[in-house]
Amino acid sequence: MTLTTVDVILVGAGIMSATLGTLLKQLQPGLRVLLVESLSSEAQESSSAWNNAGTGHAGNCELNYTPMAADGSISLAKALDVNEAFDLSRQFWTHLVRQGALGAPESFIHAVPHMSFVLGEERRAYLRERHRQMGAHPCYDGISYSEDRARVAEWAPLLIEGRDPAATVSATRYAGGTDVNFGALTSQLLAHLRAGPGFAARFGIAVSGLKRCPDGGWRLELRDMKTGELHLAEAATVFLGAGGGALSLLQKAGIPEARGYGGFPVSGLWLRCSDPGLCGRHHAKVYGMAAAGSPPMSVPHLDTRLVEGRRWILFGPYAGFSSRFLKSGSLFDWPRSLRAGNLLPLLAVARDNRPLTEYLIGQVFARSDQRFSALQEFYPNARPSDWELAVAGQRVQIIKTDRRRGGVLQFGTEVVHAADTSLVALLGASPGASAAVAIALEILRSCFRGKLPDGWERTLQGILPSYGLSIRHDPDLCRRIRRESAEVLRLQTP
Ligand SMILES: Cc1cc2nc3c(=O)[nH]c(=O)nc-3n(C[C@H](O)[C@H](O)[C@H](O)COP(=O)(O)OP(=O)(O)OC[C@H]3O[C@@H](n4cnc5c(N)ncnc54)[C@H](O)[C@@H]3O)c2cc1C
Q: Best mutation site among 9, 11, 22, 47 for ligand 1, i.e. most ligand atoms within 8 A of its Cβ?
């Protein structure tokens, strides 16, 4: 049995490990880093271009980030959090393109307008008010609103063609939106890391056990997926960037901070169109309003995608239930994750989230014509022969203990780390890949503070011009940074 000793082990070759690894090596080039991935190559799970919508989530169009409160008010707070987080990702990619660490921006990011689209008078009033507030904010400078069918048809003709002329349509459009190929980005980040010293990536190797070392750090048991051979690796700090597999590994580590966490797997499907005529006529990511009780990742959207050098239209995702935590996982993932400590929170969530349960059951048993009619709410003239069903990937929503209610279902991401900062895991899915840099910064601050060279935060300011500042409170900074990143990444300034 071989033993490898490094400073940091990254588990999983998705966008999260690739981003954290890149940031760490930028701040401390001498760091010895080992990445292990159970599959044969990187970005095969959630970070694959086809297993997420590729929306550069910036809170431009996702209506679930600006819910209406019971008193009718709308808060931009969550949308602005997401907006600032995505801006950090843009700044990091800008830095890496300038450095030559990433290839041509078109290989991973494109300007695609972000739209919100609603039907009916009540939703119109909501969207109009949301736009009034956003339009006054520098982070959404240039966002447009229209109730005019002809204008909406100019923005996205498929939404209007074949629609009942009496329908009340309303839409917003933000020209500065993006479509991101997180799979291509992950591959490029890892290629750059592997080309440099002090970084090794081992594929086809699964982490099958974790134990604390007597003098600090962790010893990982690594299993070769082909031969079954076992190896060992030790590191002072371990990042569990294993996507849906992170919860099981966190439970194996047995740290007290993991107690009470559970997971709820949600699978997904898309309808996908590759017809060049249709794809050439849709240039937007159009987000609608989620059905009552549905989880935020099930907000339907009609999306332009640029993948494999081609244009596509994606619609969905349709949620479903599978007990796997990863696409490549086992049907026993979910039952195996149940513990005395997370059973009560899970039951509490089942009790308190009946609309979600009903929604998921409805989705699992939805017939193909029912799925298609959801698409036709966006694109009335859609024809089944132009669309194929595709797998959208697997997510594990977090369930955690809550003093008042027993347990809560959380739709965001959560960084969970050991008290001594030697082990850190990322749980949850949303807003996901778009927030990779903001999440990596949270991990740096919580787990690497004393382990990086003095002055690392100053180095970070050189990489991320808004680090330690706030673009939402500084309109000039916001404009300058947006202009710079738009120029380097060849995006649109609205
Ligand atoms: C339907 C859907 C739509 C989405 N849309 C968007 C979107 O539009 N925009 C956005 O920003 N985000 C979106 N997301 C979220 C985003 O895809 C994820 O947040 C992100 O890709 C997670 O990256 P990751 O690196 O944490 O995980 P992953 O990409 O899943 O990588 C984890 C890796 O860990 C490996 N692994 C697991 N267990 C082990 C083990 N024991 N040993 C070794 N390796 C292991 C896995 O094989 C996998 O390769 C979407 C997700 C889904 C499912």
A: 47
